[in-house]
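Good morning C.,

I know you're traveling, so I'll keep this short. The sequence:
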Amino acid sequence: MRIKVYGAGWCSDCIKVIFFLESRPVELDYIIVKNEKTIAFIDRVNNGKRVIPTLEINGKIYSKPGINELTKIIT
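The tokens, ready to paste straight into the viewer:
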């Protein structure tokens, strides 16, 4: 399973999600939201709101999922 995580280094929720996913058997792409292209993507998929972490898993978007929700998604 490949997971894209859109986030930022200053975001504690992003750091928690990354640490959690790094301990799981998934392929992880961490995309730092810092340029217009990634900001526009985050805005578009979150109805105009800049919500991080935003994850893309199997073509579906998850906005700021908790560890319990992530566990259910990836198992």
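Safe travels,
E.
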